[in-house]
Design goal:
The chain has two domains: 51 residues, no CATH class; 173 residues, 3-Layer(aba) Sandwich (Collagenase (Catalytic Domain)). It has six helices and five strands, in the order ααβααββββαα. A hairpin with a 2-residue loop joins strand 4 and strand 5. The longest helix is centred in the C-terminal third of the chain and has 20 residues.
């Protein structure tokens, strides 16, 4: 999750990209960019909007027979441990996804004293550096997928993200809970939403409770998985 960049840079294609400015496109370059490389222009538009919503044909999910999913949640690093929620507290937050799917999705919190992150289906970890070009990032999820099935997910939480410098301790705690909930949504197969009320909003980091939109999408994804099983 990236919070919120003032401009988004398109991936390099070897062709002239669409030029972006703070918060809007530079209109004098828009027509030229589209004429020179329509595909790159469309890719840039999609990146700027944060529009990574999956089509049904590309939907990925965990196989239901894989449940419960083992979750590795390490303690917060010393640098960010200012009364931050403990792993059990964070685990309780992400279990919202269980409740709204009536148990289709289930989690198991791993024992960090007897198990390892490598054994996890979903492994959280901490990093000091953000993804290049995403200075305001607070976390991201990387999914390993085979066909339409998710096999493993690693979720990286950023230590001391820039956004936290403007927040109180209580606000940082809320931000972390929202981040864990958001990245867990990605881990389950959801992509970004354009609704600012959703936990999965592409510029979202304030929502600690799943919205009606989040609930509808996760139910559709896993009920579809049940009918295809």
């Amino acid at each position: 999750m990236n919070i919120p960049p003032q401009s988004r840079q398109p991936q390099s294609t070897g062709q002239p990209p669409l030029s972006l400015s703070v918060g809007h496109f530079r209109l004098e370059n828009l027509r030229q960019s589209i004429e020179q490389n329509p595909l790159a222009a469309l890719n840039a538009l999609g990146a700027w909007r944060g529009d990574s919503i999956q089509s049904p044909a590309k939907a990925v999910r965990w196989p239901l027979e894989q449940m419960p999913l083992s979750v590795w949640l390490p303690a917060s690093p010393v640098s960010v441990n200012q009364g931050f929620p403990s792993p059990p507290s964070l685990f309780a937050a992400l279990r919202q996804w269980e409740t709204v799917t009536d148990g289709l999705i289930r989690f198991r919190l791993m024992d960090i004293n007897t198990e390892t992150a490598e054994q996890a289906h979903i492994a959280f970890g901490w990093a000091q550096e953000t993804t290049k070009g995403r200075d305001y990032e607070v976390g991201h999820a990387n999914r390993e997928v085979q066909g339409s099935r998710i096999r493993r997910v690693t979720i990286t939480l950023i230590q001391d993200p820039l956004i936290d410098g403007h927040l109180s301790i209580a606000q940082r705690q809320s931000r972390l809970l929202a981040t864990v909930l958001h990245e867990t949504g990605h881990a389950l197969g959801l992509e970004h939403s354009e609704n600012s009320q959703d936990v999965m909003f592409y510029r979202g980091w304030r929502r600690e409770q799943l919205s009606h939109g989040d609930i509808r999408r996760i139910r559709e994804l896993y009920q579809q998985g049940r009918t295809q099983a």
